[in-house]
Amino acid sequence: MTEAAIDIRGLSKTYQGGKRALDDVSFDVPRGQIFGLLGPNGAGKSTLINILAGLVNKTAGRAAIWGFDIDAHPRNAKASIGIVNQEITFDPFFTPIETLEIQAGLYGVRKADRRSMELLVAMGLGDKANAYSRTLSGGMKRRLMVAKAMVHAPPVLVLDEPTAGVDIELRQQLWAYVRGLNAEGVTVVLTTHYLEEAEQLCDRIAIINQGRLIANEPTRTLVGMAQEKLVAVTVDRDIAAVPENVCFQKIERTDPRTLAITYRKDEVNAGEVLAAIGREGYGIVDVSTREADLEDVFLNLTRAAR
Fold first, then answer.
1. Which keywords, in A-to-Z order, does the entry hold (predicted)?
2. 87 partner at 20 to 30 Å CA-CA among 127, 254, 264, 285?
């Protein structure tokens, strides 16, 4: 099927009092991808997710999940999506297995088709199936939320800041599970403040700022938009004065024999930068470079959109 997993067209939301959280947002989430939805705090990401979940009424526009319009076919749309919100919400007096069984019942999943224990084992919670949920650690509660969102086997899974407050080991376990779900055909939409995660995981990324869509590109394309590159050059003697050259966008001495030079790779190359240092009479002892990453692009785009 070529139809988008999520199709959003002209989506707008203005809250009472005049705050415009979303302003004519349009994009598709392709089926089978891990799709990043990024933006600063207050950009409108959670409002968009809550509209898809049926928790917030849109002001204008339309949205469809797995081909089902959220207005015309709300039951089918909700059955096609699982959402893990930032807030951890479940009854602390139920056990994890009870939590999943109740959630499956709410979605009308027949007892013979339920996968509650399978989901708990997959999330590393098999040994906690019958413990009170309130006794779980923060990371375990977060993983229980993911399992809860998957009880009805939705083709689309939305993870809203899923690794907030989770340690590195649990974060890696969660991403391994998400990659596994994606390999099985589940479309994943991810919001995160850990930009290195988005860069490593996502096939495509959309960026929202102040309610507007300011980017929607394959991850590699977005990273390629950053033209600044940093090169650290260690020379053979102490640097008496920081050299100047038109090919340096920025240069600073980080220790007596090392220069940190920023240049635009669309205007000059590393060879020209090193040649400029050589012409100053310095012998080059060591060179290290840092490529631009998603964080650089994110900051440049959001600053430009203000």
1. ATP-binding, Nucleotide-binding, Transport
2. 127
Percentage, residues of the chain above pLDDT 70: 96
If asked whether residues 164 and 133 sit together in one domain, one would say no
- pTM of structure: 0.78
Q: How many domains, the chain?
A: 3
For the chain, give the secondary structure using H, E and C: CCCCCEEEEEEEEECCCCCEEEEEEEEEECCCCEEEEECCCCCCHHHHHHHHHCCCCCCEEEEEECCEECCCCHHHHHHCEEEECCCCCCCCCCCHHHHHHHHHHHCCCCHHHCCHHHHHHHCCCHHHCCCCHHHCCHHHHHHHHHHHHCCCCCCEEEEECCCCCCCHHHHHHHHHHHHHHHHCCCEEEEECCCHHHHHHHCCEEEEEECCEEEEEEEHHHHHHCCCEEEEEEEECCCCCCCCCCCCCCEEEEEECCEEEEEEECCCCCHHHHHHHHHCCCCCEEEEEEECCCHHHHHHHHHHHCC
Least confident of 52-61, 218-227, 287-296, 297-306: 297-306
User: Which domain range does residue 292 map to?
Assistant: 225-304
pLDDT band of residue 292 (cuts 50, 70, 90) is low
